[in-house]
Structure formats: structure tokens, C-alpha cells
UniProtKB/TrEMBL annotation:
This is Isoaspartyl peptidase. The record marks G173, T174 as: Cleavage. One of its GO terms (biological process) is proteolysis. It holds the Pfam family Asparaginase_2. The lineage of its organism: Bacteria, Pseudomonadati, Bacteroidota, Cytophagia, Cytophagales.
């Protein structure tokens, strides 16, 4: 066995059966399964963990169902500002973007920063200039337009209220992936459109290495989804890694300690996906639901939305 493993997420929060139509649930499951299986097949063909997480996240960015890429929510100005990050567990190299507009797949720009820049995090127009230099694909404003998201932004655009993702319910819109490849290397990637009606160029945890995204072959790869301010203050992704490295926790023990104990104690809601060097997976969340999927060597792939 090569211990191949991959997990993906599409956001967490107040996600319950009574808030979902059968048609919408079917659509979510279809897009999650497609991203999961395509990325896993890449691993089976010898692809790297870095390639797999980039592919999975890009496919989720292409779906209007998730608050990332094409499905990104509207800002206070009626625009789209996207954040993303990707990290290699073998080298600890990372690339990230914050507040970019018109980038079709922010995760692909993050990967290019990882490979072509001496920097880790680029933002706004500077990141977009970098994207042009390396022929990263842009998309027109209408590509990111979704009537449902527009209607919900219109409800709050004249107020100082922001919404967590695209609903009055608490939904944290982020997509992400973690993977272990045949060489035993780990990788993580995360992408988000942030909060509806967000102002002042707000940036969440997704592009921050150690908060929303982290990968280290010695411990684990992590991608988070939740109320970003809490995940930033708790340095969630790195905290899981630290518990494994310095305390000897297993992956599941470390994830449960951070998500189900430490975060809960100071009001942090959400979850994460994680994989360790053995290919073990963990997908804890302290909210009502989390769009998620996972697959590993010798096990059939599975997608889920609600608590088991």
C-alpha cells in the first residue's frame, strides 16, 4: 500500500438537512465527489500531493456553490476579493494571495508564487501584476456574478453588517484540500471569497500560513474553515502541528484538542481537514455541519455534509 490520502472541504457552519433542498444537496455532493475523485486519481498516477491539493481546490473554485473563486461573495463595494494559500510539507515552501480580484483560480496564483517568488504572501494589485507576469488566467466580473449571492449582499450593503459567507445563518465559506502522496509528502491548500459585505480589505485566516493553512512532513497538513478571526488568534493549523511535534499527540488527538476544546472555549466555530505522514485523516468540526470528502488507499471515497 502506498498510503495515498486526500481530504477536501467546502466550508462549515449551520448546515442542516432542513436548510437544504434535495436538489441543492445533490449538487453539493456531486461537486465535492468530482473534486475528490479527480485529485485522488492524480495521486494514483504518481502525482504529487502539491499537485493534488491544487487540482482539488481549483475544481471547487470553479463551482458557484462554494465561496471561493467563481462562487465568491460580494464585498461592501460590490466586488470580489479572494484569498488563497498553498504549502508543501516536504520543503515548507508556501505561496499565498490576499484581496485579489478577477483571478479565476487564486490557488493557481498561490502555487506560482510558491514556485516563482522569493516571497510567501502577495496582496491586491501587486499580486495581480505578478499574475500577469506569469500568465495566470483572469476572468471578467460577470464570471463571478451569482444572483443568489447578489441578492443577499443587497440586503446588507447599506449597513455595517457583514455576513459569514452568503447566508443569515452561520456558514463559513472556504474550500480546501490536504493530501499525502506516494512519496510520503504532504501538502495543503485553502481558498476563500471571505465574508459578504466585508469592508476595509478584510483578510481572514485562509492565506495566513499557520492559521488557516499549514503543511509539514514531520507532522501533518491542515486546511481550516471557520470564523477567520478566531482561527488567526488561535493559530489553529500550526497549533495542531505543534501538539504532534512537541507533545506527541496523534493527528486525531491534536485536531480534537484544538477544534473541539481550545476553539470552543473562546467562541471559535468551524472545522478543519488534516492528514499525517502515515496517511491517517481527521476531519473534526464544532459546527452543525461541514461540506467534506475523503479517500485513501484501500478505502472508498466518501462525501458528507452533516454530523454523522
Amino acid at each position: 500500500m502506498q498510503n495515498l490520502a486526500i481530504a477536501i472541504h467546502g466550508g462549515a457552519g449551520t448546515i442542516t438537512p432542513d436548510s437544504m433542498t434535495p436538489e441543492l444537496e445533490k449538487a453539493y455532493r456531486k461537486d465535492l465527489a468530482h473534486a475528490l475523485n479527480q485529485a485522488y486519481q492524480l495521486l494514483e498516477k504518481g502525482g504529487s500531493a502539491l499537485d493534488a491539493v491544487e487540482m482539488a481546490v481549483a475544481l471547487l473554485e470553479d463551482s458557484p456553490l462554494f465561496n471561493a473563486g467563481r462562487g465568491s461573495v460580494f464585498t461592501k463595494e460590490g466586488k470580489h476579493e479572494m484569498d488563497a494559500a498553498i504549502m508543501c510539507g516536504k520543503t515548507l515552501d508556501a505561496g499565498a494571495v490576499a484581496g485579489v480580484r478577477s483571478i479565476r483560480n487564486p490557488v493557481r496564483l498561490s502555487r506560482t508564487i510558491l514556485e516563482q517568488s522569493d516571497h510567501v504572501l502577495l496582496s491586491s494589485y501587486g499580486a495581480e501584476e505578478f499574475a500577469r507576469k506569469y500568465d495566470i488566467e483572469f476572468a471578467p466580473e460577470e464570471y463571478f456574478y451569482d444572483q443568489h449571492r447578489y441578492n443577499q449582499w443587497r440586503e446588507v450593503r447599506d449597513t455595517d453588517t457583514f455576513m459569514l459567507d452568503h447566508s443569515k445563518e452561520r456558514k463559513f465559506g472556504t474550500v480546501g484540500a490536504v493530501a499525502r502522496d506516494a512519496n510520503g509528502d504532504l501538502a495543503a491548500a485553502t481558498s476563500t471569497g471571505g465574508m459578504t459585505n466585508k469592508n476595509y480589505n478584510r483578510i481572514g485566516d485562509s492565506p495566513l500560513i499557520g492559521s488557516g493553512t499549514y503543511a509539514n512532513n514531520k507532522t501533518c497538513a491542515i486546511s481550516c474553515t471557520g470564523h477567520g478571526e478566531y482561527f488567526i488568534r488561535a493559530v489553529v493549523a500550526y497549533d495542531v502541528s505543534c501538539l504532534m511535534e512537541y507533545k506527541g499527540y496523534t493527528l486525531q488527538e491534536a485536531c480534537d484538542e484544538v477544534v473541539l476544546n481550545k476553539l470552543v472555549k473562546f467562541g471559535g466555530e468551524g472545522g478543519l481537514i488534516a492528514v499525517d505522514g502515515k496517511g491517517e485523516l481527521a476531519l473534526p468540526f464544532n459546527s452543525d455541519g461541514m461540506y467534506r470528502g475523503y479517500r485513501s488507499s484501500g478505502r472508498e471515497g466518501r462525501v458528507a455534509i452533516y454530523k454523522d
